[in-house]
Amino acid sequence: MNMNVRSWVLFVILTVFAFILRDLHSPSNKAIYYPQLIVETLSLVSLPFVIRKIRRYEILFFLLILLMLSQYIFHHQSFRISTVLYTMLLGSSFLFFSRLFKYETIKVAQFRGFIKWMIIVLALVLFIQQVQTVIGIEVFNLVSDGSSKFKLNSLAKESSKLALMVPLLLYTYITLREIELNHKYVIKKEIFHDRNVWLLAIYTGFTCGSMTAFIAFPFFFIRFLNFRNTNLFSIVLFFILFILFVPFLGEYDIIRMDRIIELFSALSTGDIKIVIDEDPSAACRIVPTWLFFNSFSIFDFSTWLGHGIDASKDICTFMITDREEVDIGAMNIFSLFYDYGLVAGIIWIQFVKSIISQKWVSYEMFIYVGLFYSVTINHHLIWLFLMLMYVLKQFRMSSYNINNK
Question: What's the predicted TM-score (pTM) here?
Answer without folding.
Answer: 0.86
